[in-house]
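Service request form, structural biology core

Requester: graduate student, group of Dr. S.
Request type: structure prediction, single chain
Budget code: on file
Notes: please return the result as structure tokens.

Sequence provided:
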Amino acid sequence: MKPRIFLAVAILALLAGGSYLVFVKNLSVSLPEKLSPPIQTLPIPSPSVLSSPDNSLPLPHNQDPLISEIRKILKNSSLDLAVEERGPISIYQRADVTRDVVPELLIDVGSGGAYTQNMALFRLEDGKLILADFKRSDGETGPIRFLNGASVRNGTAAQMLPEKDAIYQVFWHTDDEGKSESCRVEAYRWNEQTRTFDFNSELSKEIQIDFCKNPEVTSLYEQKLLACNSIPNNSTKNEVETGRLFINLPKDVYPDKDNNLQFKTTRGNATAGWISNAGPYGEVENVGPGCWSYYYDFEGNGELLLTVKSAIKEMPDYKIRFVVSSLQ
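Core staff response, request fulfilled:
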């Protein structure tokens, strides 16, 4: 197989969720199957968009043809993102926002500011991986740098919304007491005719109302969860048997990496198990230096309660209710 064809097949396999096998330097590895749908909560990005229902794992980073192609495109782009200046390239979110079945990729490029990560959006055009083009509010067209992260008083986050054919960026600022001083959203909706994501003022206002009306979202605690791409605290997650997801936590609030996650079956025979071959415990996904990341799957039928004890008096324990449904 010629290198160009090999790369195209590898990219399509990972993006579209095919069960292709990729061979790199005589190493055979199954690429991930298609991803489970992302949750519909607008304010806080969810790791469920990154979950995979099969037993395959991505290629080692230095052998992954998709990552290599992304690296090449970024280094030759006009965005000037200091690619991999402080960490490896990684996939932050996958979701189909152009309704072509193939998911777009929101990529953490491995660089950023004091509290932010630089990100860029990729998609397929005629079988070729490209940086997505955006039509800004001023009419200018081209790729955009997205940001994710939070400090004590400032924060920003990017999220794809498949149900809106869109991607948005939110920026917020709080006072010394954690109360919101400013909050704004920039949303871009896919335009099939121009093949660009166009700034949409109405959608920006709609998301801004949902995101900014809740003062808890701009609290320091919520900022920490947002920065780690955590499942929102005190929420309920519906999972199917053999389903998988990432569980991410801020290290300073929940520092006990090895004993953080405590699952209790509250109904039926549902269980959760750590996927040991996905990477070191608590360090699976590249979500930032201040975050733990665990990869778990679910079995059985019933309900589980996840509890994580907080090490900071002013911040709550982390509790998530999982409802697991059997495939049979």
